[in-house]
TrEMBL record:
Chief location category: cytoplasm
The record's free-text note on cofactor binding: Binds 1 zinc ion per subunit.
Protein name: Methylthioribulose-1-phosphate dehydratase
Pathway: Amino-acid biosynthesis; L-methionine biosynthesis via salvage pathway; L-methionine from S-methyl-5-thio-alpha-D-ribose 1-phosphate: step 2/6
EC number(s) stated in the UniProt entry for this protein: 4.2.1.109
Length: 236
């Protein structure tokens, strides 16, 4: 595709176009401490196109012209990744791409967010087993079954699987896939000593859900450090 044609894929005066939204959302995520030090980010799938930010760049400073656009689904899962658009600059697509793809393929997600939030990291340290669990918190109601289903109730226990980190982000693909199959109701996957992946049926729901989960990781960590139980047998 000629570059002017492919530039049209990321050029729009609509602030809700994914190429405009991703830079704006990343600026907000940076100020929450979710995407500092270049890590983390968000991908948006709109119909048959996926929008992905570059790897290893300051995520709060990305521009619509830095965006990669990929066809969804990809023509072959075994062949090299196919792009509808690559930026003119010498940039590589986010190393999170295969992880974002897990959310699109396994949950039909419209967006997936990866944060390096310290709340998520601390939760993986204070819950040394394979699950983060918390009950009886109002913000549980902001989390959906499987990330894209109906909302949980105040009386549901929130369970988020924890997978072990790998030296390279893309090598998390398989263990994230396994966790998503084993925990079909989970709205996200924590990565020990690293962060979290959260998805939703669109970017608004993915963002709101990431905010609720991040709040629950933070409050869970504080409760644990205060010696309070994070699971109640009964309430009130
Ligand atoms: C200091 S970031 C280390 C790599 C990482 O965890 C990450 O999320 C990288 O994402 P990118 O989009 O920059 O490839
Ligand atoms: Zn990361």
């Amino acid at each position: 595709m000629a570059s002017s044609d492919s530039d049209a894929l990321v050029t729009s005066s609509d602030p809700l176009h994914p190429a405009n939204l991703i830079p704006e959302l990343c600026r907000g995520f940076y100020h929450l401490g979710w995407v500092t030090g270049t890590g983390g980010g968000i991908s948006i799938r709109q119909g048959d196109k996926v929008y992905i930010a570059p790897s290893g760049v300051q995520k709060e400073r990305i521009h619509p012209t830095h965006m990669f656009v990929l066809p969804y689904p990809q023509p072959s899962p075994h062949a090299d990744r196919v792009f509808l658009r690559r930026p003119a600059q010498n940039l590589k697509e986010s190393a999170c791409t295969p992880l974002f793809w897990n959310a699109f393929e396994l949950r039909d997600a419209g967006s997936c967010i990866h944060t390096h939030s310290q709340h998520a990291v601390m939760a993986t340290l204070l819950w040394p087993e394979k699950e983060f669990r918390i009950s009886h918190q109002e913000m549980i109601k902001g989390v959906r079954i499987g990330g894209t289903g109906r909302a949980l109730s105040f009386l549901d226990t929130l369970v988020v699987p924890i997978i072990e980190n790998t030296p390279n982000e893309e090598d998390l693909r398989e263990s994230m896939h396994e966790a998503m199959v084993k925990y079909p109701d989970a709205a996200g996957v924590l990565v020990r000593r690293h962060g979290v992946y959260v998805w939703g049926s669109d970017w608004e729901k993915a963002k709101a859900q990431t905010e609720c989960l991040d709040y629950l990781f933070e409050v869970g960590v504080k409760m644990k450090l205060a010696g309070l139980p994070t699971i109640l047998e009964s309430y009130p």
